[in-house]
Specification:
Elements (H helix, E strand, L loop, with lengths): L6 H11 L5 E5 L12 E2 L9 E2 L3 E4 L1 H5 L4 E8 L13 E5 L11 E4 L3 E4 L2 E4 L13 E2 L10 E3 L7 H9 L4 E5 L13 E2 L10 E2 L6
Parallel strand pairs: 5-6, 13-14
Antiparallel strand pairs: 1-12, 2-11, 3-10, 4-6, 4-7, 5-9, 8-9
GO cellular component, one term: cytosol
Protein name: MoeA N-terminal and linker domain-containing protein
InterPro entries: MoaB/Mog-like_dom_sf, MoeA-like, MoeA_linker/N, MoeA_linker/N_sf
């Protein structure tokens, strides 16, 4: 009787026989579970703009440091639009979470810290909060700059990596082709399913699973 091949030796032999599969372009929605054959790279800064982190009001920090607490409301900046600008450092602008920070402002004060009084917006900030530049602002490029590799070649694509690809503008990805797998039944005790086995034999079943 021949000695059995160890698991380690069998694994080594299989790996030595494997050749890299050809690459193919696959629609993004069909890439989960595949092996990436190109790096996923940011096509722009992330976030791509100074992004508001709280519903509230954008102000200029210099005015706050100078002692101003009451501001004239000069407009609003919803998410999904741009181009807003503070008329002056004495003004504030209503902003939504995810919106572009209006030009001329560098601080967002949450709506919970505000009240309307005599037509103006008056702020009362908690004692343990220091109002300084970029409070509640997610700075442009603070996560990643344009051209940064986020997912390397050879990575297995999970939902998180697919989401990154979508964020970076990949409608399709270069991945390895799926391998074709064949199951072989071996053993002197096996007989085809259509034959009657002897008392010392069994029907071959794994190849049909």
């Amino acid at each position: 009787m021949k000695p059995l091949t160890t698991v380690e030796e069998a694994t080594r032999l299989v790996r030595e026989a494997i050749n890299p599969l050809a690459a193919e372009l696959v629609p993004l929605a069909e890439t989960v579970g595949r092996i990436l054959r190109e790096p996923l790279r940011t096509d722009r800064d992330l976030p791509p703009y100074d992004r508001v982190m709280m519903d509230g009001y954008a102000i200029c920090s210099a005015s706050w440091i100078d002692g101003q607490r009451s501001y004239r409301l000069s407009g609003e900046q919803p998410a999904g639009s741009g181009g807003a600008q503070l008329a002056s450092s004495q003004d504030c602008m209503e902003v939504a979470t995810g919106a572009v920070l209006p030009e001329g402002s560098d601080v967002v004060l949450p709506v919970e810290w505000s009240e309307q009084k005599d037509g103006n917006i008056v702020f009362k900030v908690p004692d343990d909060v220091r109002v300084e530049p970029w409070l509640y602002v997610h700075r442009r490029g603070s996560d990643h700059f344009a051209g940064t590799d986020l997912v390397p070649i050879g990575s297995r694509l999970c939902p998180a990596e697919v989401a990154i690809a979508a964020t970076c503008g990949y409608p399709q990805l270069k991945t390895s082709r799926r391998p074709k797998v064949a199951i072989l039944g071996t053993g002197e005790e096996l007989v085809p399913v259509e034959e009657a086995p002897a008392s010392y034999q069994i029907r071959e079943s794994n190849v049909h699973a």
